[in-house]
Amino acid sequence: MFSNFCGIKIQGKCFQGEVKLKFFEKEYHRFCLIYGKNGSGKSTISQAFDTVKQNNQLLIVSQIIDKSGAAVDLTNEDQKKNIFVFNEEYVNSKVKIKDNGLDAIVLLGDAANIDKKLKKAKRISKKLEGRQSKYQEEFQKYNDKQNTDNPEKYENDIVLNLKSNFAEREKNILGNTNRNLQNKTIELAKNIIDHFETDVSTDELKNNFDDKFKSYKDIRSNLNFTEEIKQLNFEDIKQLLLYQLEQKQLTPKEEEIKQAIAEADHVITKNIMESDKDICPYCFQKLTNEYKKEILSSLETIFNPNIRNHQRNLENKKQEIQNSLNSLKNLPDMDKLDKDLFDTIKMKIDNCQTEVTEKLNQKIQNPFIALNLDVNFDSLVDELNQNLEQLEKKRQTFMAQKARANELKQELEKLNNQIAYCEIKDDFNHYKEKLKAKQTLDSNREHNDKRLECITSKISKLNAQNKQINIAQDKINEYLKYIFFKEGRLELCEPNDQKQYVLKSNGNRVKAKNISTGERNTIALSYFFTEIFKGENSEEFYKKPKFIVIDDPISSFDFENKVGIMSFLNYQIHKIMTGCNKSKMIILTHDLMSAFDIQKIISNLPKIEFYDERESKNKKDVIFMQKELKDQKLVDFGKNYSEYKNLLDGIYDYANNSVSENANIGNNMRKVLEAFGTFNYQCGIEDIVRDKTIVANLSPEQQAYFENLMYRLVLHGESHAMDKTKTLDFFSCISESEKQNTAKDILSLLYLLNKAHLQKYLQKEQVEKIEQWVGNCRISNNRIN
């Protein structure tokens, strides 16, 4: 599953450019120990693997790479599921210890995350509830319509003003005292404010209104005479009356036919003659073609179509003139324009209408004669047209006056709106201001209520999720017992109803503040390994492939638990590495002593046996790699440990008179001091005894003495990284015995600062000897000068 996982391609945080790091060079390499100083990028590497698993680091881009450096496509979700990362982010997100009354409550995994979310949600909820109460209290003022902060007060004042002042002027303009005033609303006020702004004073506007209204009142009218009154013309009627049709002389036979069909319809006869019938359906006479043609010709002569057309024209003209004259007589409201004149016109129209109608009827009866209208008809028409002309002039005068009235009306309506603008503008400005404040408050209240509803729902869901969480309590307690080598030293008790685990130390209640950071990290590491094997039975714990990354399993806070944690890691590393030959592990640490301890652990892992084709024989090799992260590169780390230990052994032997002379002893002492300062305190030789934190446990006399010693070493000496050609230094100027005493002083300083450090590198007898040197230290004699 992880055979092609050889390294990682990473960019982000301290890796500004893209970097490829290979942790497993050979196919059989399955464990990688990485030592790196703080700030070298170890945490970023662990976060990069976390990004591969769950894409939770926004500032890091990373990909697993194979042996060739090509990216490995993690399409298999099972691969991601079996990648496990332990780092500071894991501890902070997965383990939370808080007080609940007299007890310390431990929240693990999702419970810790849920508790964090719950705490945040409840904090937000409390804040929102406070706002809700504040908004409700502020909203009370809007229930009082007379409150000066309520926009309804100003709206009511505006509408009342419009219904009285504005509406009164409007009624005067329209001349309608019964006009409905319900349309005087705030919408009308908005229209007035938007479109009738003016800088003219109210008094000036009112005076202007009164002057124009006086003129308007004298000329206004509801009458309207839009239709032009035209004069009459009867020339076309005269021509129709004078028109004569030609009358043909009928033969005796045509007279007979005419008499025969007088009582019948000549059209029926015509249809019979034009049909294919051989016998007449009325007289049963035989009908020949010659006879039919003769009858049709006679009908044509008797019933001339020109006569019928002329008669129709006369009928149409008669109807047309009657309609026209009737329409003229019935013009609406003309009697209000000039009653006497209009009565005269109607009388003369009646006379004309009578004369014309009689003559047209005569003409229709006898279209072959020419008729003339009465000799006085033209005089009558002239008089009528004169009267119509007089009426038209009166109409035009009236309409011109009405147009002026309409102009005045429009001017008055504009003035009314401008006066209203002046009357309501102050109230309207207050209305807008208070309405905006109310709307803002209402919007904030509504938004707050929705947020409160959402956060309340979220709290309910989180509480429900919290009750469904189960952890391997027994397994965690088993691991804690293993680490502390004591049952009950630190244990999780049975969970309460909220799935909260009470933490006890040595069977006693304990407060959260009394739980050390080291103890918290121990709980986190124990929980981490229960998560790795979650859902698996005990027989399969170590048989399935896992890819595990652990960053700084032992922190600076874990000194008291260091032996137990290292023992626990030894147990887990061997179980994982031997349980499944496809599992892989990477452990990163900034602590040199921890790195050396893990070196010892992995050196006991079984070696892999393989056939070397190049040498044609079976060989064995370790399955682990040891690297130091330096300058964003992985360099060999193992030999540094041997070199440092050899230097310590050499200095001890020289100080103990085991060797007579060592030409490089001065440089070796400086190398050891520099390595000790760098690995343990990230400082140079001269700062080891200057840093008050480092020498806090030394007496003032010891501090002064060793500061003097370091000054001489630095001033007259050289760093192992400096030019090796320099030979004239402090050590070349003192005797052999003084050199040996200086070696004892340096080992004594290391012992005083970090006894465990020397215990890791030197034999028990050697450490006991150094302890004697510390007791006999030459501080009071001040022999270095």
UniProtKB/TrEMBL annotation:
<keyword id="KW-0175">Coiled coil</keyword>
<dbReference type="InterPro" id="IPR026866">
    <property type="entry name" value="CR006_AAA"/>
</dbReference>
<feature type="coiled-coil region">
    <location>
        <begin position="374"/>
        <end position="425"/>
    </location>
</feature>
<dbReference type="Pfam" id="PF13166">
    <property type="entry name" value="AAA_13"/>
</dbReference>
<feature type="domain" description="Protein CR006 P-loop">
    <location>
        <begin position="27"/>
        <end position="730"/>
    </location>
</feature>
<dbReference type="InterPro" id="IPR027417">
    <property type="entry name" value="P-loop_NTPase"/>
</dbReference>
<protein>
    <recommendedName>
        <fullName>Protein CR006 P-loop domain-containing protein</fullName>
    </recommendedName>
</protein>
<feature type="coiled-coil region">
    <location>
        <begin position="111"/>
        <end position="184"/>
    </location>
</feature>
